[in-house]
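input
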Amino acid sequence: MSELHDLLDRFTGTWRSEGRIVDGGEHDGERWHGWDVYEWFPGERHLVHRVDVEMLGARREALEIFTPHPGTPRSFDQTSFEADGSIEHARGRFDADGTYRSGNESARATLTFDAPDAMTARWETRRPDGGWGEWMTVAFTRIGEARIQVRSTREHGG
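output
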């Protein structure tokens, strides 16, 4: 396989996600939780990411596909299909030190692997003045193998 495959393979598994809003706005300090599941699509050329979280009192689900970006060995395109019908596009890449960065015009994330079964993300959003401002922090703990499944709202409990 490729270097990008090996870097993306670190995501595979089922992760418990716990986040906190840090934007200074009306939801500042609010916490949320859920699951993120990453698994290889058959053929291991695309990584599938399933998001299933409870945020600000509402369930948020998405299915995201990571696809290698032609001509850039440590970069990939991300397409996220949201449960509300919207579609988001972003570009992801790995820095030389293994830090994962992802973003588009309105939001960006920096993710570090803290241990084999732990990662941390810091999200920012575009401010009205064009600069970037903190949005949320997320801690991920790998709790099992990759296994995408549908969960009930009841299963989101703390």
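quick obs: The two ends are 38 Å apart (CA to CA).
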